[in-house]
Design goal:
heterodimer, A: about 425 residues, alpha/beta, Rossmann fold, CBS-domain, 5-stranded antiparallel sheet, 16 helices, 17 strands, about 20% strand, B: about 210 residues, mainly alpha, MetI-like fold, 9 helices
Chain lengths: ~425, ~210
Amino acid sequence: MSDSKISSSAASENTVSGASIMLQEVTKTYPGQKKSAVGGLTLEIPAGSIVMFVGPSGCGKTTTLKMINRLIEPTSGQIVINGEDVTTMNGDELRRRIGYVIQAGGLFPHMTVASNIAMVPKMLGWDKAKINARVDELLELVSLDPELYRDRFPKELSGGQQQRVGVARALAADPPVLLMDEPFGAVDPITRQRLQDELLNIQSEVQKTIVCVTHDFDEAVKLGDWIAIFNEGAQLEQYDSPERILANPASEFVENFIGSGAGLKQLTLTRVNEVDLVDAITTTPGKRASDVLSQLQGSGRKIAVVLDSRGRPLRRMDRRQLSRAEIIEGTYDPDLPVVGEQATLNDALDTMLVASAEYALVTGRRDVFTGIITVQTVMEAIAAANSSMDDHHEAPVGLNSGAINVVDIESEPAESGGEPA
Amino acid sequence: MGDFIGERSRQILFASWQHFSLVVQCLILATIIAVLIAVLVYRNKALAGIANGVSAIGLTVPSFALIGLLIVPFGFGVTPAVIVVTFFAALPILRNAIVGLNNIEPTIVESARGIGMSRLKTLVSVEIPIAWPVILTGVRISAQMVMGVAAVVSYALGPGLGGFIFSGLSRLGGANALESVIVGVVGVVILALILDLILLGIGRLTTPRGIRV
């Protein structure tokens, strides 16, 4: 990933570096078992999008994921990535071109963070200088300071940090496809929300094709451009956008899986960056507190936000704190209510409730402060979202050959099999 | 006693060195053989069970009996000594290597395969390094044990301090007999301590900080 790519994706036109994936009639039958773990699954995964596989445990979603990089060899069927049939190529070479992230990162405990990340580039024969530069670049991307973390060992990191390094390692050789197997299953809810926000921020920079397995429907709604809901034997129940699945569940199974709170799911569908944020008075450590205070009084705002040299929020200060202080201090407040701009309104509300604040600070790429979201904004956005729902769109192809007798990919209209249009 | 050591200091030092060298070389050989066997069997439950069984039963074989049996085909000298010492040294290492390799979290192996490491590369770069501290513990146990075994195999006229013990025991009551036995026994103990310290140091140097306990 080069600088040019970042800047071009920062502009409204995004460069998709991901590849499309096509599963064609893929079946996996384990020896000695009558029923297939995955039965005749045909699934189109569009380039540059995040596709979430959800379903009850044992439904074959993980098996399907692992067949994409052929950690599990399909019994029959084809896997086509970017138009290239990869079903028979060398599995190890294929996997070097596909990022893979598992729960808790799956880091090698005997290697430093840097050597973990450098593993794939090394296998691909990159030279040392290029690898080192890449390691630092990736650590920056996942919001870890290279100076601090490069030489640490996995056991010296928190769960969330290990997961970040896992993502960095998967992205090391800039693969077009990223596979994630329940990546955020092993971390606490607050860290999970942060990691999800970060993944979305990273995705807006790198535009990979991401396939992610989860058992958490809320996570699927938050992260997914498309959601595939599987029943036993990887039978596809519905494959569509989160909005459409929530609005029109294709079957009773899907309805039950979504759960009863579908009304409130609107909170999960709207992102922080889709609502209007409030500007804030910002300052940096070392400034005179009285100057900031007069600025604050002039604007009628209640708090000022202290940013570090890279524009990341360090702490907030209200008028009383400002009047007591002389110089703005640069200490970091760990209880600061912060949400990523790609977080859902649900996350934002959660964050505010946890911090007992009526606002939260919003950060964008690489944790740079972008504005403030308030409770009122959230409420207004829910009301607005409930009144407008678009239904003009085309879903990618996904069906099981068992459900329909003839499967012709070319002539099949772009609708999901489980969903009568 | 002092006279005994003084008169034969060169001989004692030479025998000690030979003893030490026999044990170290056999240990290296045993480590290679044991790790190779462990790699071949650890994924298969039945084979791993057999290997563990052989390791347990093998340790009950009296080393003196084994050396006696080996003199028949190989004659007196270094060959039967090396075979016996290596055999006993390999057993605890084999056992620890299998345990070490089996105790690696499956997710670590899965992620190694998932990022495109071949079976062999996974073994060499991930599995063996992670199992290494456990394997090395086996090597240390072996080192202690075969120091004694190496003394016994001197019966087959192999090199080492065992010569002092056997010659002393055969003429017990005679002049310098007891001194000879004591020099042999104490020498073995001192060598064992030295080797253990060296192995401890090797462990420190070869275990990455990330998996040190």
